[in-house]
UniProtKB/TrEMBL annotation:
Lineage: Eukaryota, Metazoa, Spiralia, Gnathifera, Rotifera
Cross-referenced PROSITE patterns: FN3
Skewed-composition ranges (Polar residues): 133-145
One GO cellular component term: spindle
Region (Disordered): 129-150
Domain of life: Eukaryota
Gene Ontology biological-process annotations: establishment of mitotic spindle orientation; regulation of establishment of bipolar cell polarity
Record-given protein name: Fibronectin type-III domain-containing protein
Residue ranges of domain Fibronectin type-III in the record: 4-100
Length: 750
């Protein structure tokens, strides 16, 4: 029989479950391991035990479910070959206590499930069809003949039918002249759908519109999640034509229907999170969709055609119809970023527990939060561990501010100490990523009301600054790090549900839009009610819809955790959990700071950053960074290298001067103009700022990936032979490098 499995560990993954992980035995004794047996009990002698067998030699993880909350669970594991099961190995720690942070906070989780949406939907339609307009308040069936109101309604439908006979077939607009327009961006790989005039498909919504478009813009954003219901939405809007508040929304639905007809595509994509406005008051709503997975992409209508994006941008640059700062020109300039935002909005965090930082931008009329540009559905965060659950002991430790005098079980010391280290390391890494000084760490607070549970396998611990810093009005400005942007709170919430709970946002949008129509229609029917029975019917219907609206608002309010976090951050009486005790307990002052005056903060130490990526094999005490540049050859795939050693505080413009001085006779002509280009993992390119240092470039590459190219920025930029590939090589000072031995030099290719 085989020996016992090794490295048996227990992790609390829920209030009633724990996860067992283990490795294969050191000796299988000549036979292959075919299965493992997991045994657990409430006592250390395993008198009353339960067991289960994993019939796979590759699966070495098991979740023990349906355990008693707060009761110890002892676990041991054994392996089996053809001869049978071998010795057991008790886990380390030998037991775990299933718990959740809600046990300490004494709260219960409210699950937002599909059943509540179905109940509201059934309540809306059942009351309308069975008990709404045909049943009076006392439950008696109405025996009245069609009233004048029904006659007037039928006459109005007749007039609409006559008017539809003279309607023109929808046409695409060639340019944005005046008013509100709907612009469609349909892409497929490297192609884009354009009209025969080589412009983006667009239709006019209305010449006149209100100056406050935010409410209608947010309503139209909800409509983009229910494109399949658009045909059923339009008749409902026509019933609400008398409501002035729905006039622009009716025009938006009509314009979207025309785009569907002209492009022969039902799904027009998602609305870009900001609309475009020019100096003349024209506004454009931009819809973006990717048809890479659609089988109908080879078929296009007669008035549209596919064009490569490279050719499209070249034609737009040469076009004389684009005026300065017009809507179309702004769309063309921002289109690459819009497409990036479209793809980034679908990215979500991996399962686990994260520490996030709330940074806001306040103005008189709006509040914006800082998010990752490449993942706008999440706050800036760093990962603590892969297990999303926070146990009762861990949450209690945070609330007691790392009180070392509190008594704890011996078996939980190990796991709790691991959590302490993981939490503080993640917090340090977060402040390094945001380039925040040390004072921000000591002044920051932990949001202690709850652990934000985005998904069942994704949780956040929120950090925020002091109330005085949060309440300061700030003008919109770009963050020092190009990978972060500010979004309105509502847009962030939509992105967060889009990337983590797409079914929820679709169901909410469908019910919300339907309920808006029904409320307007019920109010209109109440105003037109003539008899007492009609008045009772309409009043009963309206009260029922208001009750449904209240239920829907409760569901949406439960999902808006960010609003509660912002309210706590702005409240001066809210203390939260200070980070200062954690800073003093880990002796931050003993961390060696950087030699540069601009990098005094211990959080800016690159030693910690590289440690997470290179398994502690590189010492950053040496400030020299070796950069190796490669120039591609025309005739082959080989490269001609040249190396350059620079100080990590050397700025980019100084590096360019060094390259021109040393290599102009070899690769470059005198007075050549060079650019550093950051090629991101999604193959989009950004020119790097000249004031960045080699250390900042290294940090950016380690954090976000990609490559650094050097190119000539003149007419030779289009010549592929002038492109240079850059590789960052960091030489450790504590390793003896023998150039004669292969593979002895340590290099990092980014």
């Amino acid at each position: 029989v085989p020996s016992a499995p090794t490295n048996v560990h227990l992790v609390v993954t829920g209030s009633d479950n724990i996860t067992v992980t283990f490795d294969e035995p050191l000796r299988s004794n000549g036979a292959m391991i075919i299965k493992y047996k997991i045994e657990w009990s409430t006592d250390e002698f395993f008198t009353n035990l339960s067991s289960d067998v994993i019939k796979s030699c590759f699966l070495r993880e098991y979740i023990i479910r349906n355990l008693s909350v707060g009761q110890k669970c002892y676990v041991r594991v054994s392996a089996s070959n053809m001869k049978g099961f071998g010795e057991t190995n008790v886990a380390n720690p030998p037991y775990c206590t299933p718990s959740n942070w809600r046990e300490f906070s004494k709260t219960s989780r409210t699950n937002i499930c599909d059943l509540r949406f179905e109940e509201i939907q059934n309540k809306i339609f059942n009351e309308r069809e069975g008990n709404g307009m045909n049943r009076s308040l006392d439950g008696n069936e109405s025996s009245d003949t069609p009233s004048r109101r029904n006659y007037r309604r039928s006459y109005g439908n007749l007039r609409k039918n006559f008017r539809q006979l003279f309607q023109f077939y929808p046409r695409l607009a060639k340019s944005i002249k005046r008013g509100l327009y709907l612009v469609s961006v349909i892409i497929n790989s490297d192609r884009i759908l354009v009209t025969n005039e080589d412009v983006l498909p667009m239709v006019e919504v209305d010449e006149n519109y209100g100056h406050n478009l935010l409410t209608d813009f947010q309503w139209f954003m909800k409509l983009t999640f229910v494109w399949e219901d658009l045909k059923s939405v339009r008749p409902k809007l026509e019933r609400c034509s008398s409501a002035t508040s729905f006039y622009l929304r009716m025009k938006l639905v009509q314009a979207a229907t025309e785009l569907q007809t002209l492009e022969e595509i039902n799904n027009l994509g998602r609305l870009h999170h900001a609309y475009i406005r020019d100096n003349e008051g024209n506004v454009a709503f931009v819809l973006i969709n990717d048809l890479s997975s659609d089988t109908r992409t080879n078929v296009s209508p007669s008035n549209l055609k596919w064009m490569t994006m490279t050719k499209f941008f070249e034609l737009m640059k040469e076009s004389s119809s684009l005026t300065t700062n017009s809507c179309l020109q702004q769309i063309i300039e921002k289109l690459p970023d819009m497409i990036d935002s479209y793809y980034a909005s679908m990215h979500s965090l991996d399962p686990g527990l994260y520490v996030a930082y709330l940074k806001m931008q306040n103005s008189v009329d709006s509040i914006r939060v800082m998010v990752n540009k490449h993942m706008p559905g999440s706050l800036p965060c760093t990962k603590i561990r892969s297990v999303a659950n926070v146990s009762r002991e861990e949450w209690k430790w945070l609330h007691t501010k790392n009180n070392e005098n509190s008594t704890k079980d011996e078996s939980s010391d190990n796991s709790l100490e691991i959590f302490k280290t993981q939490f503080f390391d993640a917090a340090k890494e977060l402040f390094v990523m945001l380039d925040l000084p040390e004072t921000h760490f000591s002044n920051s607070r932990i949001y202690d009301s709850q652990v934000v549970e985005i998904r069942d396998d994704l949780s956040l611990i929120i950090l925020m600054s002091t109330a005085d810093e949060v309440n300061i009005l700030s003008s919109p400005s770009n963050h020092s790090l190009a990978s972060f942007i500010y979004l309105p709170v509502y847009i962030f919430e939509v992105f967060q549900h889009l990337s983590n709970n797409y079914r929820f946002i679709c169901q909410y949008s469908r019910i919300s839009i339907c309920l808006d129509f029904e409320l307007i229609y019920a109010q209109q029917n109440q105003r037109e009610a003539f008899s007492i029975n009609e008045l009772d019917e309409t009043r009963y219907r309206l009260n029922n819809l208001l009750s449904c609206q209240q239920d829907l608002d409760d569901i949406w309010r439960l999902s808006r955790w960010l609003v509660h976090v912002i309210n706590c951050a702005k409240d001066k009486t809210y203390s939260g959990i200070s980070l200062q005790p954690f800073q003093s307990s880990t002796n931050l002052n003993n961390i060696k700071s950087d030699r540069s005056p601009s990098l005094k903060s211990p959080f800016n130490s690159t030693k910690y950053l590289i440690k997470q990526n290179l398994d502690s094999c590189i010492d950053i005490d040496n400030n020299i960074i070796e950069l190796t540049f490669y120039r591609s050859l025309l005739t082959s795939n080989s490269f001609v290298p040249f190396k350059l050693k620079v100080n990590k505080l050397t700025k980019l413009n100084e590096i360019l001067q060094i390259i021109l001085k040393q290599q102009q006779n070899i690769f470059f002509k005198p007075n050549s103009l060079l650019n550093f280009v950051w090629v991101r993992p999604n193959e989009y390119e950004d020119i790097i700022e000249e004031n960045l240092t080699a250390y900042e470039i290294q940090t950016r590459l380690l954090r976000f990936g990609g490559q650094i190219h050097i190119r000539l920025n003149s007419s030779s930029l289009s010549n592929s032979s002038q492109m240079l590939h850059t590789t960052l090589n960091i030489l450790p000072s504590n390793l003896e490098i023998n150039s004669k031995k292969p593979g002895s030099s340590v290099s990092l290719n980014i």
